[in-house]
């Protein structure tokens, strides 16, 4: 099976000459269709830079990044926008950054659905199904400001999955949550990913998130090395 995500020799720097800072150093990784990967590391390790490159939000200074046959390192602005619209869903570290504050929960999910596939009963059913899977059936008509941090995070996930992307990218999905609450979110998310057949890359500083994935990478000072998730938990939704 061809990998969905193929990254080789990825490097990225900020600034020039004496102000040059290396964020990533020759990172290699692959993700198969439907696979889940955790990218772990401390703040400033380079993990968010890597996620932004995988989302097409930044262009790497070296290496190859091929996702669903698209070479993001060589893609122009319009191609990257089409990629985010059709291939990759993104959950921001601050989930409200991906939500429209003036719209209700169901309207927020309908925006990408309508933009991608037109209107109709099927699209409404998709939006309602995602919100139900994320435990927001009772909050359909509430705006983001009325939601708890957990509910806002759940809504951001539903919005990111609205167009049935091949790949979900999430930055510190559980950072603002107590671990018991985070477990509920991760359990519901992994069940939904299984149902949709969607791959996921989760950036986190919390090694416990690796219990919910198939493979894991640890990044230190821009260098990535394989890490081993706890055995038997990735598909079991265990704490």
Description:
- With 239 residues, this protein is an alpha/beta fold.
- Helices cover 31% and strands 25% of the residues.
- The radius of gyration is 17 Å and the shape is globular.
- A hairpin with a 2-residue loop joins strand 9 (215-220) and strand 10 (223-227).
- The chain is built from 6 helices and 10 strands.
- The strands form 2 sheets. Strands 6-7-8-3-9-10 form a 6-stranded mixed sheet, with helices on both faces. Strands 2-1-4-5 form a 4-stranded antiparallel sheet, covered by helices on one side.
- Helix 3 (105-117) packs parallel to helix 5.
- The protein starts with a strand and ends in a 12-residue tail after the last strand.
- The mean pLDDT is 90.
Biggest sheet details: 6 strands, mixed
Name the helix and strand elements from N-terminus to C-terminus, one letter apiece: EEEHEEHEHHHEHEEE
Supply the number of helical segments: 6
Mean pLDDT across all amino acids: 90
Low-confidence stretches: none
- Give the CA-CA distance, first to last residue: 31 Å
Percentage of residues in helical conformation: 25-40%
Spatial sequence of strands, sheet with the most strands? 6-7-8-3-9-10
Total beta strands = 10
What value does the Rg take, in angstroms?
17 Å
Overall geometry: globular
Structural class of the helices, strands and pairings?
A: alpha/beta
As a percent range, the share of strand residues is 25-35%
């Amino acid at each position: 099976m061809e990998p969905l995500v193929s990254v080789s020799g990825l490097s990225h720097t900020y600034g020039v000459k004496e102000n040059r800072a290396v964020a990533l150093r020759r990172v290699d990784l692959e993700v198969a269709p439907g696979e889940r990967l955790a990218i772990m590391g401390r703040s400033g390790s380079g993990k968010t830079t890597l996620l932004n490159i995988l989302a097409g939000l930044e262009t790497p200074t070296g290496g190859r990044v091929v996702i669903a046959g698209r070479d993001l390192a060589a893609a122009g602005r319009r191609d990257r926008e089409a990629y985010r619209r059709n291939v990759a869903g993104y959950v921001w570290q601050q989930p409200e950054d991906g939500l429209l504050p003036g719209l209700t929960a169901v309207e927020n999910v309908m925006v990408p659905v309508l933009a991608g596939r037109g209107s109709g009963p099927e699209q409404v059913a998709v939006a309602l199904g995602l919100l139900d899977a994320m435990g927001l059936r009772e909050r359909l008509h509430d705006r983001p400001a009325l939601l708890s941090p957990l509910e806002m995070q759940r809504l951001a996930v539903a919005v990111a999955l609205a167009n049935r992307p091949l790949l979900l990218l999430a930055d510190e999905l559980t950072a603002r949550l107590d671990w018991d609450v985070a477990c509920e979110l991760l359990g519901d998310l992994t069940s939904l990913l299984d149902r949709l057949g969607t791959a996921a890359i989760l950036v986190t500083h919390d090694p416990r998130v690796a219990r919910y994935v198939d493979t894991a990478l640890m990044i230190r000072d821009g260098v990535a090395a394989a890490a081993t998730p706890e055995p038997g938990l990735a598909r079991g939704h265990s704490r």
